[in-house]
Amino acid sequence: MADSEEIIEAKEKRNDREYFSRIVKTTPNLIEWASDEIKDDKEIILEAVKQDGGVLEFASKRLKDDKDVLLEAVKKSGWTFCYASDRLKGDKDVLLKATENDGQALYYASKELRDNKEIVMSAVNNKPIILKYASLRLRSDKDIAMLAVKKAKQKVIDYITPSLREDADIKNLLNV
User: Where are the domains of the chain?
Assistant: First the structure.
């Protein structure tokens, strides 16, 4: 985290590309005080998100729509998928990488990807309670339900369809 002296310096050098190219390697959150031009510099933003995916918040709109930048950010911090452009919220590769690190990313996914079994399995494996954001079809899927129940038991039972709650295998898992 940056101290007040570092923030003052960053504000003073807000247009200095060389300064930000160097400083994001050790204190990436200083990018918040960079100029819009620097926040739109792919090379600098890529380096910053490699250090701290959360600084994606400060990237330009254009770079939030750049798959390379998003992949680096979600690799570091899956939750940063929330900053993705609408287009990339529908990108299976980016979401799959995000859910490997943080199942919560499913919350921000497109409707289509909430209905993708591979994506939902990855998200539920990482954060079982996220099952509540899967499509109704996948909340009815026995494989997904079994995974969620194995990982979180009673916490997820309300998100599984009623017919699956009566399934013998699911009931066995709940009683173990």
Answer: 1-101, 111-176
DSSP string for residues in the chain: ---HHHHHHHHHTTT-HHHHHHHTTT-GGGGGGS-HHHHT-HHHHHHHHHH-GGGGGGS-TTGGG-HHHHHHHHHH-GGGGGGS-TTGGG-HHHHHHHHHH-GGGGGGS-TTGGG-HHHHHHHHHH-GGGGGGS-HHHHT-HHHHHHHHHHHGGGGGGGS-HHHHT-HHHHHHHH-
Measured distance CA(123)–CA(98) in Å, rounded: 9
Task: Please identify which residue in the block is written with the tokens 């750049």.
Answer: 66
**Which tens digit of pLDDT belongs to each residue from 79-128?**
999 999 999 999 999 999 999 999 999 999 999 999 999 999 999 999 99
The reply to whether the predicted model has a pTM over 0.70 is: yes
Identify the band that residue 2 occupies on the pLDDT scale cut at 50, 70 and 90.
confident
